[in-house]
């Protein structure tokens, strides 16, 4: 390197060192790089220069330290001296700071609360200011103009509302309608619970009114007023449907339950409000009414076996009452959801269906107790709904039909009772051994007979045991019939009329039919028929006591103009006449049985001089039979005796004139004459008192004159006097005489009854032929 360049290099190195000392270390890199980029070995010289500069700085530092060393040592010495005081001061400062912090905590908290409140106040003011602009968005139908409100369009929520509100509207309608459907389904299932509660309250009200009326001596009906419709209570929904087991039974009876206590109507209110706000109320009303009409038809549809038990009818009525209680509540709790016209339409439809159902199902019932229960259910059902303002007069009209059905079932039941009484009766007078037994009998049946009362015990009452039983059962029937009249809100006169009419049906139809059937039964003999006549006589006399019995029940005087009379007199008279006729018939049948035992030897030569055995048995039977008739009215016994004698006479006459009988001997005529004489003796012995003269003997006058004609063979007199009112043989008909004469003139090889005439006098044969010709002439003259 040239010497001229060395000073320049040194000068450059000085500049670099100054630059390094005066600039930031971040800029040292480029400076040092310039040294290596310069002349060769320049860096060595720079390093030398740098070492020289470092040594100069070290000397200056040493000088500086030597100059300040004593002051530093003095300062350290002073600091060491104040160290203890500094530590003591630090403790005091720390304690003061702690106490200051504790004293300022409350102030700090209040300051922070003030700051927070001021922030909230500022935020609220800002929010109110902004909400004032957004209030129209929350008013009804304001969402329609949200996009046109410049003040609110800047808010995103307004745009979201404008987009979503129509969807929300439909969703709200769907949700509320779903709730309504659940409500309708629930009320359909629980309407019987609502109805049961309403009916129970109606029964309690009726019991209370009845008690008050009896205490006050009233005799009129007070219309019930119930609280299930909740008209006097708030319409605020206050609960869901009650569980069947909810609450205590006694507590439920003490409380007055409203419809809201049993049913949560909030779905109806909510849905109605939503549809009203959304401007679609008419759609909701139409839907609700349509669904309730469908439910009404379901409620009115009875179960097929409803008529079998009273519980079937009770469930049916409970459901209907529950349905209309709910509708009545909705009518009064809402404005126009249902109208009175709508409920009246539903009720009229329901009433027609109910009447048709009850009319049909009651006709299947043959149990009077069940029909009576049905009547009670109809009455309380009608009273309950009448308390809600529904007209029920048609239901009470229906009760008259049910009453007829009830009477029919009672009549059928009592027909069985009467049959059983008649079947178990011994048809013998009632024996009474002591006065106590006598009192028991007369306590059950109004029997009064001075002659029998004078007799000493033991004694017999003329009627059989069926009489007091029948009388008691008629009274029981009246009581049973009276049960139906209870709670019908009818006057005493109407009840009296109903009782008398139903009792008349019992007497004139049921009892009369049982008596008629009894009389016609084959096992009922003459003794039984006689007792039946005696029984009906006493029952007939007891009819006036039945009249008094009904009068005592109804307090309606029998002298009232429109009072129905009992027809028991005619019933028992008809039965007695039928029994009398049956006596005559059975007597004749018994006579026929004896006559069938007759075994005449029609060709006998002469009679054995004694009456036939069958006839004597018949007469003995008649004597003993007529002795039983001593308790019968005189005319009955006389008529029976006369009828028996006439029938016997007719039967004997028919035996002689039987077409199968071809010939008769004079000996047979003589034997037959002996039998007729026994009949005449019986008639003259007055088997039944009361006949005048030979009245009873006249029953055999036809036979007597016919037999006398043949026994005496007095044809000349007969033919000469024929047609004369004083003829000796006035009762002998020419045809009868001709028929018997034909049988006597026929001869046979075995027995010729005219052989003696031919031996004695052949002219008699000619006489017979002449008589026959004359008789035939008379018969022909009669026929022409």
Automatic annotation (TrEMBL):
Residue stretches making up the Exocyst complex subunit EXOC6/Sec15 C-terminal domain: 395-743
Keywords, comma-separated and alphabetical: Exocytosis, Transport
InterPro entries (alphabetical): EXOC6/Sec15, EXOC6/Sec15_C, EXOC6/Sec15_C_dom1, EXOC6_Sec15_N, EXOC6PINT-1/Sec15/Tip20_C_dom2
GO BP annotations, alphabetical order: Golgi to plasma membrane transport; intracellular protein transport; vesicle tethering involved in exocytosis
A GO cellular-component term linked to this record: exocyst
A Pfam family annotated for this UniProt entry: EXOC6_Sec15_N
Every Exocyst complex component EXOC6/Sec15 N-terminal domain range: 49-142, 150-199
Family statement drawn from the similarity comment of this UniProt entry: Belongs to the SEC15 family.
Role, per record: Component of the exocyst complex involved in the docking of exocytic vesicles with fusion sites on the plasma membrane.
Protein name: Exocyst complex component
Originating organism: Oryzias sinensis
Top-level taxonomy: Eukaryota, Metazoa, Chordata, Craniata, Vertebrata
């Amino acid at each position: 390197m040239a010497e001229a360049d060395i000073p320049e290099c040194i000068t450059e190195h000085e500049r670099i060192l100054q630059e390094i000392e005066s600039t930031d270390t971040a800029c040292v890199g480029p400076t040092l790089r310039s040294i290596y980029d310069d002349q060769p070995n320049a860096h060595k010289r720079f390093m030398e220069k740098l070492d020289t500069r470092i040594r100069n700085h070290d000397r200056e530092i040493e000088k500086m330290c030597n100059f300040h060393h004593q002051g530093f040592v003095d300062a350290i010495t002073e600091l060491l001296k104040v160290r203890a005081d500094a530590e003591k001061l630090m403790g005091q400062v720390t304690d003061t700071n702690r106490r200051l912090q504790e004293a300022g905590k409350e102030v700090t908290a209040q300051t922070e609360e003030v700051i927070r409140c001021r922030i909230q106040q500022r935020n609220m003011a800002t929010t109110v200011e902004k909400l004032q602009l957004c209030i129209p968005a929350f008013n009804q139908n304001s969402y329609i103009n949200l996009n046109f409100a410049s003040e609110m369009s800047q808010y995103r929520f307004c745009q979201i509302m404008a987009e979503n509100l129509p969807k929300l509207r439909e969703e709200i309608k769907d949700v509320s309608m779903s709730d309504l459907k659940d409500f309708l389904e629930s009320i359909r299932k629980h309407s019987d619970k609502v109805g049961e509660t309403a009916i129970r309250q109606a029964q309690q009200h009726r019991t209370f009114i009845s008690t008050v009326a009896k205490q006050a001596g009233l005799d009129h009906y007070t219309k019930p007023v119930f609280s299930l419709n909740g008209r006097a209570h708030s319409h605020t929904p206050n609960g869901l449907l009650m569980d069947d087991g909810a609450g205590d039974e006694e507590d439920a009876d003490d409380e007055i339950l409203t419809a809201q206590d049993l049913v949560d109507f909030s779905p109806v209110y909510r849905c109605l409000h939503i549809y009203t706000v959304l401007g679609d109320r008419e759609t909701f009303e139409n839907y609700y009414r349509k669904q309730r009409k469908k439910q009404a038809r379901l409620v009115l549809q009875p179960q097929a076996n409803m008529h079998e038990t009273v519980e079937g009818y009770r469930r049916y009525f409970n459901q209907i009452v529950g349905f209309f209680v709910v509708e009545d509540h909705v009518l009064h709790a809402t404005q126009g959801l249902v109208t009175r016209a709508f409920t009246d339409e539903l009720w009229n439809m329901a009433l027609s269906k109910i009447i048709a159902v009850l009319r049909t199902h009651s006709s299947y019932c043959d149990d009077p107790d069940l029909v009576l229960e049905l009547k009670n259910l109809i009455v309380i059902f009608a009273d309950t709904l009448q308390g809600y303002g529904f007209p029920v007069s048609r239901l009470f009209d229906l009760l008259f039909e049910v009453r007829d059905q009830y009477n029919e079932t009672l009549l059928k039941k009592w027909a069985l009772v009467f049959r059983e009484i008649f079947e178990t009766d011994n048809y013998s007078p009632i024996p009474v051994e002591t006065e106590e037994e006598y009192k028991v009998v007369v306590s059950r049946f109004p029997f009064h007979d001075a002659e029998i009362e004078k007799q000493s015990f033991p004694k017999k009452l003329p009627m059989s045991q069926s009489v007091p039983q029948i009388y008691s059962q008629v009274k029981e029937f009246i009581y049973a019939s009276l049960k139906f009249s209870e709670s019908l809100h009818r006057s005493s006169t109407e009840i009296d009329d109903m009782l008398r009419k139903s009792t008349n049906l019992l007497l004139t139809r049921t009892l009369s039919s049982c008596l008629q059937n009894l009389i016609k039964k084959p096992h009922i003999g003459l003794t039984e028929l006689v007792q039946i006549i005696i029984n009906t006589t006493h029952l007939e006399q007891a009819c006036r006591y039945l009249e008094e019995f009904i009068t005592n029940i109804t307090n309606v005087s029998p002298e009232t103009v429109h009072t129905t009379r009992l027809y028991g007199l005619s019933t028992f008279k008809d039965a007695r006449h039928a029994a009398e006729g049956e006596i005559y018939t059975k007597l004749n049948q018994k006579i026929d049985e004896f006559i069938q035992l007759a075994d005449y030897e029609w060709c006998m030569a002469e009679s054995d001089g004694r009456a036939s055995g069958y006839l004597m048995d018949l007469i003995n039977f008649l004597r003993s039979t007529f002795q039983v008739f001593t308790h019968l009215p005189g005319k009955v016994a006389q008529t029976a005796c006369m009828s028996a004698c006439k029938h016997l006479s007719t039967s004997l006459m028919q035996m002689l004139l039987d077409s199968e009988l071809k010939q008769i001997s004079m000996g047979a005529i003589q034997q037959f004459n002996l039998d007729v004489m026994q009949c005449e003796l019986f008639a003259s012995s007055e088997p039944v008192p009361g006949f005048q003269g030979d009245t009873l003997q006249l029953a055999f006058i036809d036979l007597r004159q016919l037999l006398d004609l043949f026994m005496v063979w007095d044809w000349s007199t007969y033919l000469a006097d024929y047609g004369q009112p004083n003829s000796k043989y006035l009762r002998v008909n020419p045809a009868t005489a001709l028929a018997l004469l034909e049988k006597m003139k026929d001869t046979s090889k075995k027995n010729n009854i005219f052989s003696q005439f031919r031996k004695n006098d052949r002219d008699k044969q000619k006489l017979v032929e002449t008589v026959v010709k004359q008789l035939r002439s008379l018969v022909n003259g009669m026929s022409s």
